[in-house]
Specification:
Layout: H1 11-14, H2 86-89, H3 101-110, H4 117-128, H5 142-154, H6 157-166, H7 172-184, H8 188-197, H9 205-214, H10 218-230, H11 236-246, H12 265-273, H13 298-310, H14 316-323, H15 334-350, H16 353-369, H17 373-384, H18 391-402, H19 407-413, H20 419-429, H21 440-450, H22 456-463, H23 467-482, H24 486-498, H25 502-515
Helix pairs in contact: 3-5, 4-25, 5-6, 5-7, 6-7, 7-8, 8-9, 9-10, 9-11, 10-11, 13-14, 15-16, 16-18, 17-18, 19-20, 21-24, 22-23, 23-24, 24-25
């Protein structure tokens, strides 16, 4: 987290976090991408960044364009490509303003991945927004690649795929990312076909062998392995793994080669194909996407969906479908969540207030332990408001409603039972400063609505026409506040309100009060 200094920022601070770094270095560095294509030496110059170091779900057909397109030299910059128009995102077209590519990239790359749900969605919107390229972009597409890498790091594979598609025919570096997205989302055959049709995307030997086998050309694949080994172009472990991939029966009873470090999506796919799937727990969250496939067991699917739902990268309906797919197979852990969710879902569908009251506390407790309260609220927040409840269940139902997209409607319909309820309802309605805050966190929130005062750093960025970076600093300030520095809460919410993101500020404040994500 960045800590703002008192007083005015110096010019060196305004120059951004990368000012002291080597300007010719990469914008980011990701180590788990598959070596699927051989990048030409010219493309590996300092002008082309590598990726980030990090650790809705209907298939979109992969991340590959259907046809070759061309762009005029004076056409739009790749860095301006986005999926969400300003009218929808709420962000201005000149979001980055006077900001420079490297400073913006550094803030995106180093931003932590553990935001509150509302802030996580805001950050995803920053990555996906259609906005003007930075003033120094020069048509190189550097920031586009950084944005795609951050999406991959967050597990937002479908979003990354769509952004690659929107950019047009991919460069070798973007194709590497498209290839890995395809592997993890079940579109590997299309990725191999595209690679075969584009001679400039020279496949590396493991990728070529994988694609030959996928197309059924086993003889050529086997010959390629033997030739590559004879020429010392692949290691002994790679030879063993690829040979086993072509003919698993020859290696029956033998242990598989040890998993490489880091594991790439191509490695993961090959190990899964030989019947030795590598667990995705402990791997970057992007790998969880592969276990949404029916090829994975139900428990693995549920756990992967929980991770991705918690990250805000897949819609809540996915977890709803998986939780209710069949009866729990056992008890404890994930099965207790499944059972509690199913009991509550049946109760809310019946409209029986007594059944809802009996099942809501347990379901809410299970969602809290998995930090899935907001997805739960998105699914059931509105329906709960039509069920007459009292006591503890009414308190839970109110909070579920306030965490849902219908918070403002809930605030108009409900009456407070406690001082805390009154503050939450005032916050959802838009002006918590009119109600006495219940605690120190409430006071920090109310101050942002009464007299907004952002951090010195965020204010300087805003004054310097660097609104996008100021928003990232505001998100970081609130994260600092979650860890106990309540001044960060006031400063971050203040900046969001000053740049016109009042609804995000209110949702964030409600999550701060209700979710109790405090260090």
């Amino acid at each position: 987290m960045r800590i703002s200094a008192a007083g005015l920022l110096s010019l060196s601070m305004l120059a951004g976090p990368l000012a002291a770094q080597d300007a010719s270095g990469p914008l980011s560095a990701i180590d788990w991408l598959s070596q699927s294509v051989a990048t030409p030496a010219a493309a590996a110059s300092a002008d082309v960044p590598t990726a980030i170091d990090e650790p809705p779900v209907a298939k979109a057909g992969g991340a590959l364009p259907a046809s070759v397109t061309t762009t005029a030299l004076d056409g739009p910059s790749p860095d301006s490509v986005g999926l969400i128009a300003p009218a929808v995102s709420g962000l201005p077209h000149d979001l980055w303003g006077a900001g420079l590519t490297r400073e913006i990239a550094e803030r995106l790359v180093t931003h932590p991945d553990d935001d509150l749900p509302a802030l996580r969605q805001l950050f995803l919107t920053l990555l996906l927004a259609e906005v003007a390229a930075p003033v120094d972009a020069g048509g190189k597409g550097e920031l586009l690649q950084v944005r795609i890498d951050k999406l991959l790091a967050l597990g937002a594979l479908e979003q990354a795929a769509a952004l690659i598609d929107a950019a047009g025919t991919p460069s070798p570096e973007l194709f590497r990312r498209a290839f890995d997205v395809a592997l993890l989302t079940g579109a590997e055959d299309r990725a191999c076909q595209f690679m075969a049709e584009e001679p400039h995307l020279a496949p590396t030997l493991p990728a070529r062998i994988f694609c030959l086998a996928r197309s059924g050309d086993w003889d050529t694949a086997a010959l390629t392995i033997r030739t590559s080994k004879a020429l010392n172009q692949i290691t002994a472990d790679q030879e063993t793994l690829l040979s086993r991939f072509l003919d698993p029966d020859l290696f029956e009873g033998e242990p598989p080669p040890p998993a490489p470090n880091p594991v790439t999506p191509l490695d993961w796919m090959i190990y899964a194909a030989i019947g030795e799937p590598l667990p995705t727990e402990g791997l970057p969250i992007a790998f969880s996407y592969a276990e949404l496939s029916p090829r994975a067991g139900w428990k693995a699917q549920i756990e992967a969906a929980e991770r991705l739902t918690r990250a805000g990268t897949i819609p809540p309906n996915v977890i709803l479908g998986l939780y209710t797919e069949r009866d729990p197979a056992a008890s404890g852990g994930v099965w207790d969540r499944v059972a509690a969710f199913q009991d509550f879902e049946a109760a809310i569908s019946s409209g029986d207030a007594a059944r809802v009251a009996a099942t809501l506390p347990e379901a809410w407790a299970r969602m809290q332990e998995a930090e899935l309260e907001v997805p739960f609220a998105t699914l059931f927040g509105k329906a709960l408001q039509d069920i007459p409840l009292t006591g503890e269940t009414a308190t839970i139902a109110l909070r579920v409603g306030l965490l849902s997209p219908y918070a403002e409607t809930v605030a108009k319909r409900q009456k407070p039972a406690t001082a805390e309820d009154a503050f939450l309802l005032a916050l959802a309605a838009g002006d918590p400063s009119l109600v006495l805050p219940p605690d120190s966190l409430g006071r920090a929130i109310a101050a942002a609505f009464r007299e907004p005062e952002p951090s010195t750093e965020a204010k300087a960025l805003l004054d310097g026409n660097r609104k996008g970076e100021a928003i990232i600093v505001a998100i970081d300030n609130i994260g600092r506040g979650v860890q106990g520095d309540l001044r960060g809460v006031t400063e971050g919410l203040s900046l969001l309100r000053l740049v016109g993101l009042d609804s995000v500020a209110r949702r964030t404040a409600l999550e701060l009060m209700i979710l109790e994500r405090r260090g």
